[in-house]
């Protein structure tokens, strides 16, 4: 069985029982790596045989974990109080190595238990990266040891709506046990309003028509050397507290309006002969940021604007393509450009799950193919995969799981399975089975594709 | 305080404590009525006075229940471990007497606990009618004593996905204690595919181009006298098991395609000189149905097509307007026609909450006004109110509460409060307070209007 993310139920009518499964052996190659990483081997083999028993063999510990998940999905419960599994041989591996879900704990605080449940649900669908967009304009729930004022002043509530050291560690550990990387994002220089509350002087004061500061603040002020000291210290802490090789540096949607009103910014622009091109000021900031992170021996992911605005990037940089939700020509052009420049790329544009609409929108997610762009084979190899995004303007702990799943399962299969599996109509049966499996395990998820039922629907209680 | 459904928090800074509240008295006029009804009096008065204490006075037991809810919302918790309430005098009453929520337990089974939670949430927002669309094409979860085969064969699963006698009674009682009517809907002659599974002969066999039955079934076959015996017996049971004076008889979206293929239907049409006008056959069925229900001493609500197709209706019939979700001219024209003919009307068109879209769609719900149609004062008086509808094609126990609330609160206030409260921008602060109040009481609801937080968001765990 190759290329199908979810196993189908074995048909009990066509079954003849040939033996009892006595042994289940789990093996994997190599050392037991401590943390999952971009290049981890997730390949696995499963053999279920009436004589040998079951063998789950991973090309690494991470592959063994993927194999265990599939193995559990092969088992069904019969009406005769027995658990059944078919004789089978499976060789399975992912098409893309980065299969992520972006969560946003700034627009609304996401309870730690909700993040755990998200990781459980991701693991069941072989998603392997939790992209944790942890802070933004609206709130700064990350409790920094170096700069405790950031969350004390910038969180919604520093008592209950923050992620403490032990919370972060628990989330990293919970993810690790499920072979899921946690790539944290501290987005700057825009999207930082909440940072300014606990770090006076960080943000750019905007000026009104009367030539006086109007009390509004814009992006981080890149003209002040002190701000880069702060950035260096903050990212030093981030690099020590998050284990992944990659840190997401953001860099999207920097608004230039405020910068343009500020006299000292304008003076700096003149000194540097930037003219009126504020993308050059943005790049000045991001260049310093990526240099700092490089010195910390970390690699980085950046939103596509950073690439578009010609920042000099490390060769292992990942450019995250997000613009053009419903316009595949927009994102496919961008993928061409990014990979032509030799950078690795991640795709999110077609998978903004927060942009809800009526009906089974997972079908269009499913039929969005990351390789749909003009490029050489070499360029295609630079596509690491993609991420579904659940921005949290309208998401909290009450609807995070039920709204994200099972819709995101479509993205998970697109990124794991063969490109030949292309039609949602042929996937819907598998997806229904998988949705019911999740409900059976107590995960509260919305219906997948119109009227119907799962055997445990009646127990979906609030 | 008149016309605001939700109370705002008293500002603790402007407060001076003048005494302790020692007594809370609840009184109401008249006999204690057993079941809530269309004309129940929900008016109440609250006086909170440092000398007299608190008096909650209802014009009936139902008004006292409304007053108790408001009273509970007046109380806030201070930072000094005290509960606070302002000195206040409130005279409050609803603008419309029918303020409903339609739930659909056929497209997906809704767990009984989810229905309880729905009733809790309705009560907090002074909604007073649960319109229970209990069966439809997809499943028949109502366990009938007279026709047990209907749910045995027509439910998704007769063991766990049915509403037994004790379940129905528990739901009626739970609603009664919250001053909420339960108006059940058994929609016919269309929307009855699942009925046919347990009642052979009920539905019309459709014929293929070869002049033979093609195995597909259409609406109830109105040409068979036996079917009206069945209908009489079924509705006799319904009238005995549901307590409200009104039963919703459906009558929407009857498809004529199948009827037109069936030879005995066509023969019947000829005999009755209906020509090719199948609305006359539909009306023939509905006329017999309403006559049966009239003989049971029940009143009825019907979807607008029944009125549009000229069925002779009892004078106390309620016509339920649902067509034209985004086109107010469609529903306002219909409201004019229905009330001009002297019938009472309910509005649902602008309030199909299952038709989700990105962002705070409650704002457009809020700004939809049932009196926005051309008609005399007398016609306006025939508007009983309205209902929000949560059709369950994409709803199950996992997302019923979080998706319905707090969006439906906008409909609740529209139907309760003064018409002068017209702008969503002026309501949003109240709505945020109310949403947080619901979360504090453990009701898992999605965010109301973009980024923000409630003090108990961190406890919204799955």
Description:
- Two copies of one chain form a homodimer.
- The first copy, chain A, has 462 residues and is of the alpha/beta class.
- Chain A has helices spanning 61-74, 112-124, 149-154, 165-176, 193-198, 225-241, 257-261, 263-271, 278-295, 304-308, 328-340, 362-366, 377-381, 400-404, 407-416, 424-440, and strands at 24-28, 44-49, 53-58, 76-77, 83-84, 88-92, 98-104, 129-133, 181-185, 203-207, 213-220, 246-248, 299-303, 318-321, 344-347, 383-390.
- In chain A, the strands form four sheets. An eight-stranded parallel β-sheet of chain A has the order 9-8-7-16-15-14-13-12. In chain A, strands 1-3-2-6 form a four-stranded mixed β-sheet, covered by helices on one side.
- In chain A, strand 7 (98-104), helix 2 and strand 8 (129-133) form a beta-alpha-beta unit.
- In chain A, helix 2 packs parallel to helix 4 and helix 6 (225-241) crosses helix 9.
- Chain A is elongated.
- Mean pLDDT of chain A is 94; it is low at 7-14.
- The interface between A and B is large, with 50 and 50 residues.
- Chains A, B: Residues 96-418 form the Glycoside hydrolase family 20 catalytic domain.
- The CATH homologous superfamily of the largest domain in chain A is called Glycosidases
Question: How many domains make up the 3D coordinates of chain A?
Answer: 2
Derived structural class of chain A: alpha/beta
Q: Helix amount of chain A, in percent?
A: 25-40%
Write the SSE topology.
2 copies of one chain form a homodimer.
Chain A: E1 24-28, E2 44-49, E3 53-58, H1 61-74, E4 76-77, E5 83-84, E6 88-92, E7 98-104, H2 112-124, E8 129-133, H3 149-154, H4 165-176, E9 181-185, H5 193-198, E10 203-207, E11 213-220, H6 225-241, E12 246-248, H7 257-261, H8 263-271, H9 278-295, E13 299-303, H10 304-308, E14 318-321, H11 328-340, E15 344-347, H12 362-366, H13 377-381, E16 383-390, H14 400-404, H15 407-416, H16 424-440
Parallel strand pairs in A: 1-3, 7-8, 7-16, 8-9, 12-13, 13-14, 14-15, 15-16
Antiparallel strand pairs in A: 2-3, 2-6, 4-5, 10-11
């Amino acid at each position: 069985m190759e290329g199908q993310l979810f196993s189908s139920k074995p048909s009990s009518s066509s079954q003849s029982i040939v033996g009892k499964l006595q042994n289940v052996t789990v093996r994997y190659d190599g050392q037991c790596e401590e943390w999952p990483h971009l290049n981890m081997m997730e390949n696995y083999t499963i053999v279920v045989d009436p004589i040998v028993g079951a063998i789950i063999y991973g090309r690494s510990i991470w592959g063994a974990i993927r194999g265990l998940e599939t193995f559990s999905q092969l088992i069904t419960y019969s009406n005769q109080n027995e658990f059944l599994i078919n004789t089978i041989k499976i060789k399975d591996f992912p098409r893309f190595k980065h299969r992520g879900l972006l969560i946003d704990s700034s627009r609304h605080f996401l309870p730690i238990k909700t993040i755990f449940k998200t990781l459980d649900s991701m693991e069941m669908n072989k998603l392997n990266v939790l992209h944790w967009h942890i802070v933004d304009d609206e709130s700064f729930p990350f409790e920094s040891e170096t700069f405790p004022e950031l969350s004390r002043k910038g969180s919604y509530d520093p008592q209950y709506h923050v992620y403490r050291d032990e919370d972060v560690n628990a989330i990293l550990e919970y993810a690790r046990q499920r072979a899921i990387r946690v790539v944290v994002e501290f987005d700057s220089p825009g999207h930082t309003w909440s940072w300014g509350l606990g770090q006076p002087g960080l943000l750019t004061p905007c000026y009104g028509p009367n030539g006086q500061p109007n009390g509004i603040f814009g992006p981080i002020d890149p003209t002040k050397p002190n701000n880069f000291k702060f950035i260096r210290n903050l990212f030093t802490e981030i690099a020590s507290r998050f284990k992944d090789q990659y840190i997401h540096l953001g860099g999207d949607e920097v608004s230039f309006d405020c910068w343009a009103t500020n006299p000292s910014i304008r003076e700096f622009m003149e000194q540097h002969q930037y003219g009126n091109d504020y993308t050059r000021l943005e790049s000045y900031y991001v260049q310093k940021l990526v240099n700092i992170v490089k010195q910390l021996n970390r690699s980085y992911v950046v939103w596509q604007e950073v690439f578009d605005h010609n920042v000099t990037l490390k060769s292992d940089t990942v450019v995250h393509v997000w613009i053009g939700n419903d316009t595949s020509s927009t994102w496919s052009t961008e993928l061409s450009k990014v990979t032509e420049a030799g950078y690795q790329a991640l795709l999110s544009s077609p998978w903004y799950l927060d942009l809800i609409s009526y009906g089974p929108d997972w079908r269009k997610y499913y039929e969005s193919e990351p390789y749909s762009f003009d490029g050489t084979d070499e360029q295609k190899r630079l596509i690491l995969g993609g991420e579904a995004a659940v921005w949290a303007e309208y998401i909290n702990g009450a609807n995070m799981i039920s709204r994200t799943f099972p819709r995101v399962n479509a993205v998970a299969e697109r990124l794991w399975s063969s490109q030949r599996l292309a039609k949602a109509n042929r996937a819907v049966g598998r997806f229904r089975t998988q949705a019911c499996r999740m409900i059976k395990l107590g995960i509260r998820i919305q219906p997948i594709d119109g009227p119907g039922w799962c055997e445990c629907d009646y127990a979906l209680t609030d």
